[in-house]
Amino acid sequence: MVLDIEYLGQRGAIGAFLIETDGGAAIVDPGPASALSGLRARLAEQGLGVADLEAVLLTHIHLDHAGATGTLVRENPRLRVYVHERGAPHLVDPTRLLASAGRLYGDQMQRLWGEVLPVPRDNLHTLAGGEEVRLGTRVLETAYTPGHAVHHVSYLDAGEGVAFVGDTGGLRLDNARVVLPLTPPPDFDLEAWRQSLAWFAVWRPERLVVTHFGFADDVPWHLAQLEEGLEDWVARVRASLAREATDEARARAFADDVAAELAGRLSADEVARYVAGAGLEACWAGIARWVRKQQGG
Ligand SMILES: [Zn+2]
């Protein structure tokens, strides 16, 4: 069940996912600490509290997905936390994660993300991809799915036909017919992302769950849209880098172009939600960083 944690009071921006099993309840990507009141409210509507949870399954450690984890573990020290092995050290000691987020968000850190507590090492179950996660008699498959982040994993609940694909599944709000990539710095990698999409195709889920936001069906269409979008954006960023301009101007022009094209396909309200959810200027920067690295610059 998708839990709308109403991040910063916005509906349909960040979705945590509640999995209920005979072995107790688990949450995929609880979201940031700043939205914990929303998470608690949605759990309470299901007759659950944090103390009832057995596990947290993280797709990746970005603050909008995993920021609340340390607070949840402090409240419920029994919680098992699943995370990719490359993300684990940054949960145990979030200093570097917070420093890099701080460079981006400055004095807005507390408002956006709340308090980010470390996660004790003993609670962590690290994944490389390929392991099974057991929740009672329910078994989830895992896969290493980089492209958006180098430490991104995805989970398949084959019995339910659902794959939890975090941000590697892109941005698709409430099953609308638009899928956008999410490509902020520093980890964007087109080749890695393509391979991750190939994994999702092999899994053949009936539905995806994307954090931003909710269930997404017509999976082959979704994956094709996302791959096309990735290639299109990389081509645009390459072209913008070949033009004489500042990075700031290039990023703004990219964001303006994408928003203008969305306006032809979505309502004004939806365009605003997509633009806010994507962070288009940061998407430009993430791709530009990768292109320059490819060029050895
Ligand atoms: Zn995200």
Describe this protein's structure.
The protein has 297 residues and is α/β, with parallel strands linked by helices. 41% of the residues lie in helices and 19% in strands. The protein contains eleven helices and twelve strands. The strands form two sheets. It has a six-stranded mixed beta sheet. A six-stranded mixed beta sheet has the order 7-8-9-10-11-12. The mean pLDDT is 97. Zinc ion (ZN) is lined by residues 62, 64-65, 167, 211-212. Zinc ion binds next to helix 2.
Largest sheet descriptor:
6 strands, mixed
Q: Low-confidence stretches at least 5 residues in length (pLDDT < 50)?
A: none
Q: Name the CATH homologous superfamily of the domain at 1-127.
A: Ribonuclease Z/Hydroxyacylglutathione hydrolase-like
- Strand order within the widest beta sheet: 1-2-3-4-5-6
Helix content: 40-55%
Tally the beta strands: 12
Estimate the global geometry from the Cα principal axes.
Answer: globular
User: What share of the residues does DSSP label as strand, in percent?
Assistant: 15-25%
CATH structural class of the domain at 1-127: Alpha Beta
Summing up helix and strand content along with how strands pair, one would put the structural category as: alpha/beta
Bound molecules: zinc ion
Q: Which CATH architecture of the domain at 1-127 would you pick?
A: 4-Layer Sandwich
